[in-house]
Amino acid sequence: MMGWESGVHQQSAEQEQLRSALIRQRSELGAIVYQLEREQRLVPPVDDVQWQGPARGAYEMLVDRLRDTLAASVQALRAAERSSDTAIATLADRVR
Amino acid sequence: MSDDLIVSGGGRIVVATDELLGQAGALVRLCGELDTVRRRVQLLAQRLTIVDLRTADAPLSALDAEVSCARGLALLGSAENHARLTAGALHTAIEAYGRVDLVVTEVMQQLSARLGYAVGFLSPLLVLMAVPTMTLGLGSVLLRGLLSGDGPTGGFREIGDWLSTHTSILTNPTTVALVRAAMGSSDDALGGVLHLPSSLVSQLGDEGVGLTGLGTTAAIAVLLARGAGMLRESSVVIHKTTSAITTPPRSLAERAARVPVAGAGSTGEQIRIDRYPRPGQPDAFEVYIAGTVDFGPVAGEEPWDLTSNITGIAGMPPGSVEAVRAAMADAGVTAATPVLLTGYSQGGLVASLLVASGDYTVDGVVTLGAPAGLVEIPPDIPVLTVRHTDDLVPALGGYDVNPQALVVERQLFADGDIPEGVVFPAHQIGFYTDTAALIDDARSPQLRDALDGLTAFVADATEAETSVYLARRTVDGDASALVSAGDR
């Protein structure tokens, strides 16, 4: 009986530890997403370029691709943030 | 009115708009920032692995978080690569344009030199051919003046009036480029007139060892003109008219606004010197120098005249330079005190000549619409050259010879809306102050670095002791009731 109880306690402690790690991860992800959103502003607006011809077309394509990839990485990290939130809530229910 | 700034020089083969250079700078910064973020996400992903989560019986959402994190990490790596690629492509495009621009300028210099030599060589014949046309033209101008009742000079006044109402001819980047080419090839034309071998002329000139150039032609013009009573230099006296406590400038526009306006409607002072006391260190000084006031070929009382302009271009000491030297000495500038000079038009030429003399500890020089391109400045001294591509005056100084000079150009009337009533509208100091304000807002790293250098010069200063000076030529030894600074 004692062994079962200690097993439950150990599992509960592990779950609590995991929950704390996920809370830290979530907080860190929030800060990273905030920083990335700020850095998205560094991607140049191509409309402002007083420049014509194929070189402009190529530059525009590269900037568009950069902007899209950056937006996709922000989305992925936001999804990680949301999933961390859900996991934290699930673990809280389990510990209770 | 166009707000686009073209930035070139600064020791690099780069010619681009400030906007484009700003974008290149932002992309390089983005690469660095993305690298930092990617490392943070990488550390995060290493802290909780999927294997750890499975062992700890973590909820599926925790596993989803790790999968999203890994995806974000991969995308961040890809974004960083895209940013590097884009920044690299943009730099390559800018440098390629710069190289083409350099080659075009060199070709234009060589072509104009050859054309100049040919024109000089054939000048006797050309003059002979032009005599009938010139006689007719001159005759009709004189006749028109006499018929209109204005006297013989009335016709010339009409030409001036016509030019001031047809400013598009003089206020045109093509005209400016042609004038710059003509000034640059004036020594070749002179060689042609003297029938010297063309190979010798080009070897001695700007395209060769640079022994002769616009300065040589200007020097010969000065010597010839002096024989006819024109362009004669004289000694100068200065008089401090104002002393006041002011604040240091915080921008380039503020510096441009401090350049004295010595023309009509002003009290005539041409020099302003701000002294920044620095406890425990030598005082620092900023010198602001006005533009040309008198365009007449015969020197009068005003040292900021055509005589000083041409004498300065000829590399000889003009009265305006001597006046600024005297004012600087009066204000306390020594060979050891740090100085920053800002000059407009002739003031820029004067500032450049003072820097080139090597007599001062110069932290930088700013020229606004100055014909100072050929004044050689030591390579360790930062130079910020601001000019309008539709302003003819800076073109009179020929091609730039200082590779370290950061040149900012703006086509003021790109929309064709040129104001009438002024012969050189793009040369007005007010427009240069506007351009300076645009430079203050510039984003390109090259310009930001240059502006940071100016800001650093006054970083510790909270107040300035301002002195304003009026200079006058001593015509025939008469000091015209002015008191020399040395006499007070």
Features of the shown structure:
heterodimer; A: 96 residues; mainly alpha; B: 488 residues; ten-stranded mixed beta sheet; 17 helices
Envelope shape of chain A: rod-shaped
Which pair has the most extensive contact? Answer: A-B, 46 and 43 residues
Q: Helical amount among residues of chain A, as a percent range?
A: over 70%
Structural class of chain B: alpha/beta
| Strand element count of chain B | 10
Number of domains of chain B: 3
SSE pattern of chain B: EEHHHHHHHHHHEHEEHHEHEEHEHHE
- Cα distance, first to last residue of chain B? 48 Å
List low-pLDDT spans of chain A.
Answer: none
Kindly state the mean pLDDT of chain A as a whole number? Answer: 84
Rg of chain A, alpha carbons: 23 Å
Largest sheet of chain A: none
> What percent strand of chain A?
under 5%
* Percent strand of chain B: 5-15%
Query: Which spans of chain B of ≥5 residues are poorly predicted at pLDDT below 50?
Result: 477-488
Instruction: Note the run of SSEs of chain A as H and E.
Output: HH
Report the end-to-end length of chain A measured between terminal Cα atoms.
21 Å
Structure description:
- The complex is a heterodimer of chains A (96) and B (488).
- With 96 residues, chain A is an all-alpha fold.
- Chain A has one domain.
- In chain A, 83% of the residues lie in helices and 0% in strands.
- Chain A has two helices and no strands.
- Chain A has helices spanning 2-39, 54-95.
- In chain A, helix 1 runs antiparallel to helix 2.
- The longest helix of chain A is centred in the C-terminal third of the chain and has 42 residues, at 54-95.
- Chain A is rod-shaped, with a radius of gyration of 23 Å.
- By secondary structure, chain B is of the alpha/beta class.
- Chain B folds into three domains: 21-105; 113-227, no CATH class; 236-487, no CATH class.
- Chain B is 51% helix and 14% strand.
- Chain B contains 17 helices and ten strands.
- Chain B has a ten-stranded mixed β-sheet, with helices on both faces.
- The radius of gyration of chain B is 28 Å and the shape is globular.
- Residues 477-488 of chain B have low confidence and may be disordered.
- The interface between A and B is large, with 46 and 43 residues.
